[in-house]
Amino acid sequence: MNQKEIEKVLKEKLPSANIKLNEPMKLHTSFKIGGPADFFITANNIQEIREVVNIAKENNLPLKVVGNGTNLLVKDNGFRGIILKTNLQEIKITKTKNKDEINTKYKINEMESSINCKEEYIVNVQSGMALGKLAQILLKNEIGGFEFASGIPGTIGGAIKMNAGAYGGEFKDIVQDVTYLNEQNDIVVIQNMQCDFSYRHSLFSNKDYIILGCNLKLYKDTKENIKNKLDENLQSRREKQPIEYPSAGSTFKRGEDFITAKLIDECGLKGYTIGGAQVSEKHAGFIINKNNATAEDVINLIKHVTEIVYEKTGKKINLEIEIIGK
Ligand SMILES: Cc1cc2nc3c(=O)[nH]c(=O)nc-3n(C[C@H](O)[C@H](O)[C@H](O)COP(=O)(O)OP(=O)(O)OC[C@H]3O[C@@H](n4cnc5c(N)ncnc54)[C@H](O)[C@@H]3O)c2cc1C
Fold first, then answer.
1. Active-site residue, 237 included
2. What are the pLDDT digits (tens) for 33-64?
3. Which residue's CA is the nearest one to ligand 1's atom 34?
4. What does the pLDDT look like over 83-101, one tens digit per residue?
């Protein structure tokens, strides 16, 4: 089937407004870079996601799920196939234990008791929810434990896949279970231990599963405490990160025995520019879109930085961002 025929099939199953053809991906990535996706589809519920998965399968079309596109570099010729944005936004908060129950449970071990005596909440949240928005909802409800994630500009889906983290917290610390669609389009629930979380990695890193939502385990706190932590983290980001320029956050992963940004800085690469892409002068770990950069500029800069760091220090640095497309 050609593009128009597939569009017709899609429109039989989904609202027309949710289907865009030849959509520039620079409109859907924080890098503000990327050529057109053949189809850019927004799904507002699980049924719509399943329909899109079926249509992609039947027509042999590559399918890539995205959240806020804040860890992605899409190549200049775009993406042949379907980009699916999961716009699932529901949230449900349940108080699971009150203080007395928790104290009783842990009273055998006084040490644990003092750590765990906070009231617990289970926050059921769908994958399209933006982390910043969730942080504000939790603040309003006086629920703590999520502050570390508030300044990460992604969604729940992207954050679970990446085991996103900052300021001493990671998703692996707060996820109780994850609900996803597997390759057969079946809904599956797995517990934290089965998610294979490690640094910027999860079970979902190497699979084409579609994360639908999760339960987060959080705790009661005061508005003041939560607000202070949120403000502190935001202030630190403003001071240290080039958030005034488009980027996809840290371009490279931390090394096992080194801080990548520090190595890049020590190699004299801060400010190094190729085309419109630049190694940020503020934070060497970030490649920024300084001036209408193309994906090719960024990729060439990544290659250059990787080569120079290896030549000068003998260390291999690995990408944290994901490059997709043609
Ligand atoms: C200024 C800035 C600061 C950042 N700071 C941090 C930080 O402090 N810590 C950190 O960890 N990251 C940080 N990031 C990177 C990024 O925000 C995170 O990796 C985030 O988790 C990506 O979420 P997303 O929704 O944007 O995912 P996307 O970029 O859209 O996608 C990332 C990956 O997740 C997959 N994915 C997305 N949604 C789903 C889903 N529903 N089901 C299955 N797979 C899915 C995509 O296919 C892709 O493989 C930063 C980025 C920027 C631009």
1. no
2. 999 999 999 999 999 999 999 999 999 999 99
3. 158
4. 999 999 999 999 986 654 4
Contact status, residue 123 vs residue 95, Cβ threshold 8 Å: no
Shared domain check, 176 and 115: yes
Residue 236 in any domain: the answer is: no
> What is the C-alpha radius of gyration for the chain, rounded to an integer number of angstroms?
21
Residue 116 has a pLDDT of 52
Nearest protein Cα to ligand 1, atom 32: 158
Distance 106 CA to ligand 1 centre (A): 36
Whether pTM exceeds 0.70: yes
Q: Which of 119, 200, 202, 247 is catalytic?
A: 200
Nearest ligand 1 atom, CA 167: 8
Domain boundary among 34, 60, 86: 86
For the CA of 163, the closest atom of ligand 1 is 11
For residue 63, give its domain range.
3-86
Q: Using alpha carbons, select from 167, 98, 159 the residue that is nearest to residue 126.
A: 159
Residues 292 and 206 in one domain: no
Q: Check if the beta carbon of residue 39 is closer than 8 Å to that of residue 10.
A: yes
